[in-house]
Amino acid sequence: MTNHASGGAEGAAGSSSFLLYGSYGYTGRLVARLAVERGLKPVLAGRDGEALEQQAGRLGLPHLVFSLEDSEALDRALSDVPLVLHCAGPFSETFRPMVEACLRTRRHYLDITGEIDVFEGAAALDARAGEAGIMLLPGVGMDVVPTDCLAAHLKRRLPTASRLTLAIFSRGGVSRGTALSMLERLGQEGMVRQGGRLTPVPAGWKSRTFDFGDGPYSAITIPWGDVATAYHTTGIGDIEVYAAAPPRLQRAMRATGRLGWLLRSSLVRRVLGQAVRRRVSGPSAGQRARGEMRAFGEVTDEVGARASAVLIGPEGYTFTARTAVAVVERVLGGQAPPGFQTPARAYGPDFVLEIEGTSRKDL
Q1: pTM of this prediction?
Q2: What is the number of domains present in the chain?
Q3: Looking at the DSSP assignment, which residues form a beta bridge with residue 220?
């Protein structure tokens, strides 16, 4: 491979190469194909040599086989590129070695997580990243680009806002990786932000009805990544995030809190994980084409002023591929403010409107 950034992350401008770790997963494959269509040349990487060889052959790209436990191989892989787009979850388990390698080698870090502990873990490394001159920007997919940009837009409309409510509605299936990440969170508490602090709440703590622009939907609170990121983006101290779900699913989500002791057992997780690996592959191209994502956002302030908006975009995995590649292009073009960032902090509330198929309407 050609060394595009031997002097560190500042060498990113003008390069077309980056490290794509976890490239053969469902989302990684979408990202790799779109990156090639956009004229980029990702270096495909991960642990599965056979899957990588097949993918690299189809796309005509270089590939590297190594695990995240091999710090020397990880550092060598990063030495030839200005940034990594990390697509191998569950990120709560995988982000730390990759971020530490980026800090050692002074390379920018991107991932597609939606996990609160990853966002907060990256935020805690803000000073180290600033000293290294690199950007740490987790969550460059549907988690959390559209909702983060929506939150920033609403804060721009109502600068006095002290409370933020976000809600998400998505049509389309889930990938194996997403299902496994959801499995990791089974039995865990919910999470909101109150008075600026992350606050555990029971699973399915609240329900509420939202109009996403095509009629009312019942929704339930979920520990979505914006509970972490929207605070860093907007400074708003009280944040709740909801997901549209039918009543039966809402009841099941609440039940996971009561059955947490069982769902956290290694035996149950192993059985459920095996079932996911056998049965879940991800939405087809047709399902992605028919799917869509909608987000509702609302802010209020202490005297009752209010602003709200709806954002509509493509199906979630399509959205993730497009936003992730768009951020990669920004970074390769030299737009990478150092330190921990969120999508809207780095690129502004209107960044999401640059993504094909995305629109926003103020209510």
Answers
A1: 0.88
A2: 2
A3: 207, 243
